[in-house]
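Researcher: Re-running this chain for the archive, since the previous output was lost when a drive failed. Same request as before.
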Amino acid sequence: MDFDFQTVLYDASTFLETALPEIPKGTAVYKIFDTQGRLIVLNRTSNLSQRLERYFGPHSERVRDLDLRKITSRVEYFRTFSPFETIYALYLERRRHFPKSYRRMKTFRYFTLMKINRKQRFPRVYASRQIKSGVDYFGPFLTRGQFARMKTAVERAFKLRPCLFNIRGSDPHPDCMYFQMHTCSKPCNNDIDRSGYLADVNRAAAFIQGLDDAIEQPWVSEMTSLAAETKFEEAEAVRKQIERLHRARQEMKESFPALESFHYVVLLATETTSRVKVAIVRGGTIAGFDDYEAGNLRDALCANLARCFEMEPASLNREWQYDEFCLVCNFLTKPLQSVQLIPFNGIESTVDAVEKRVRRRKGGDAAEENL
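Model: Regenerated C-alpha cells:
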C-alpha cells in the first residue's frame, strides 16, 4: 500500500507567504528532507499548517522548537481523516524508511498472543509476541495477568500440560509437580494418547474463542448415552468434565478470537460523504485499503472482498502480520466513533452492514447540519 504524498519544495524566502497558506490545517502524516535529500523528520500531527509554521516560522530563544529553516529542501505530506488512517500511513512509512528500528518508534501498542504449537507432539500454551506459520494464535491479551488467567483456566479445564519437558510419551516424570498433583493428563506416562490429547487441545481452542456450546453439547450427548447404557462411572467422569468447563468460564469470562479468523472490514471517516474509505482485514493482515464512491460502493466493495477472501492469500511476512494485527486491535480495545470495525460474515452480509453504517453516518451528518 502506497499513500499519495503531496510534495512542497522549500524556499526560505517564500515558504511562509506562498506555500504555507496552501497547506491544510487538519491531521496529516508528514516528512521533511534535508538539502542532501535525506529524511530528517517523519511524524504525524493534528494540525499540519501549525506544525510547519513552528518549524519554519520566526523563532524565539525562549521557545525550544526545532529550527529547520536552513537545512530543509522539501516537505511531503499526506492528509488523513481518521486516526486509523493516520496511524496506518505513519506505520507504513516508518517501516519503509526504518525497516530495522520502526518498532522502537512505538507507533501503536503491541499485544500479547496466546500460542498453541501443534507441531509439538503434545502441545502446550505459550505467550508470544511474534507469529510463525503452522501455529495457532489467539488474542489480543491486554496484560500478562489476563493471559495468565486464561492459561490457567484452559490448563485446568482440559488438563493440558504446563510442564517445560519435551514430551514424546513413555517418558514419565514422577518428580514433576503437575504429575504428582494430577493437574494434567500425563501424556508423558501414556495416560492419554496423542489423538486424545489433541482432542483436548481442540476443545481448549474453542474455549478460548468462547465456543462453549460446541464443547458442551457433545459431552452432554455422551453422558446421556452412557447413562442409558448404565455406564454410570463413565457418565460421572464426563459430568465432571462439564463442571470443569463451567468453573473455567466463571473464572475467565472473556473470549479471544483466533488469528486465522480475525477478519474485519474497517469503515473510516472521509472528507466528504460522497466518498467511503474502507480497510479490509484478513487474518490480522490489512489486505486492502481503498477509497470508494458512495454511489458505487456495493459493486466495488463486493469485488474487493471477493479478491481478498475467496482467493488464496499470498505469502505473508509474519512480522508485518503481527504489526497489522496489533494496529487493528488498538481500535478494538479502545473503540472510536470515527473508526467502525465490522466483523466479516460473508460478502453480502458484510456489505449490507457497511451500507447500513454509511447511511447512518450520513443521517447523523445531515442532522448536525440542520442544527
